[in-house]
Amino acid sequence: MFKVFTDLASWLTYSILGLSPESKFGSAVHFFIEDVSKIFVLLVVMIYVIALLRASLNVEKVRDYLAGKHRGIGYLMGSSFGAITPFCSCSSIPVFLGFTSAGIPVGITMAFLITSPLINEVAILLLMSLLGWKFTLLYVAVGMCVGMLGGLFLDAIKAERWLQSFAKDALRRGQEQLATDGVNHSEALPTLSMKARHAFAKEEAFEIFGRVWKWVIIGVGLGALLHGFVPDGWIQAHLGNGQWWSVPAAVLLGIPLYSNATGIIPIMESLITHGLPVGTTMAFCMSTVAASFPEFILLKQVMQWRLLGILFCVLLVVFTCVGWVFNAFQSFLL
Q1: Is 191 exposed, middle or buried (0-12, 13-18, 19+ CB in 10 A)?
Q2: Spatial contact of 302 and 110, defined as CB atoms under 8 Å apart
Q3: Cβ–Cβ < 8 Å for 281, 270
Q4: What is the pLDDT of residues 80-118, one digit of tens each?
């Protein structure tokens, strides 16, 4: 299926540019052209198709549905909604406030907020094409479990105490309204015509592609450098061969960095190819996507420092544990 992209990369790199297949630079350029062309085509096609299916999604109805569910089901639904929506940290915050205003418990909202940057349809698509279905299913399962466990813990410690005052007031008003009126009943969106669905999907494809293409370039570029210039086994030899300390070190290394799931996946591929254990790679990438300083600066809009610190520590511990578990079972994953 993807041979056409390999052939295109070979033609451009070795025939048009005249680079040697044996050179490090030629290998890096070939990797870059093949992955960028493949990812760009898949992005446009799959975002359009998925947007067609999501054209009638009413966020208000989803919000109301979550408000009326049992807490345990709410964690699962919040995490699932985070997984199927293409929100990054900055666009997740308005949805966070909408959920809070509806009186949805903070833990369910946080299950959404944690899962959303880790998993989306673009990330799933890229993982399938680069690392296979087994790794993709495990990544999705782990990402959703991280969101649900994080939400459960934050509810258990009554994290709503440490929201910013305006968010805390919005949550209180929403819960009071639920107590008196029951679940809010937002008006359902009318059924869209196929022409309207097409227009929505086209706009969605252009909007999401415009937001993520630069991360694809950055991610694939870094992956190409690793692929072309880092000798096989160097990363494994210098960054740990599954030693316990390599996982927390990778988590800490990812904190100052920032990428989204789309940009980090080509880097995951290169790191695993060059011998970094899968758990260590996963811990590093999840830290970069969901526990980076830029994301927490954005979250400061709705959370006090104490809650940010607690969330930060929870994510670091969870990502480290995930890395250890995946390293222990690496032989079954790849």
Answers
A1: exposed
A2: no
A3: no
A4: 887 776 555 545 565 676 677 777 888 888 888 888 777
Each residue of 24-50: pLDDT tens digit? 888 888 888 887 887 778 767 766 776
Q: How far apart are CA 32 and CA 162, in angstroms?
A: 45
Q: Are 102 and 63 contacting, i.e. CB atoms less than 8 angstroms apart?
A: yes
DSSP 157: T
**Helix or strand holding residue 163 (H, E):** none
What does the alpha-carbon distance between residue 16 and residue 110 come to, in Å, rounded to a whole number? 50
- Joined together, the tokens standing for residue 195 give 């022409």
d(CA 120, CA 140): 9
| CA-closest candidate to residue 49, choices 125, 138, 115 | 125
Cα torsion through 241, 141, 55, 108, rounded to 10? -110
Q: How many CB atoms lie within 10 A of CB 287?
A: 25
Comparing CA positions, the residue from 194, 182, 142 lying closest to residue 320 is 142
CA 242 – CA 138 distance, rounded (Å): 19
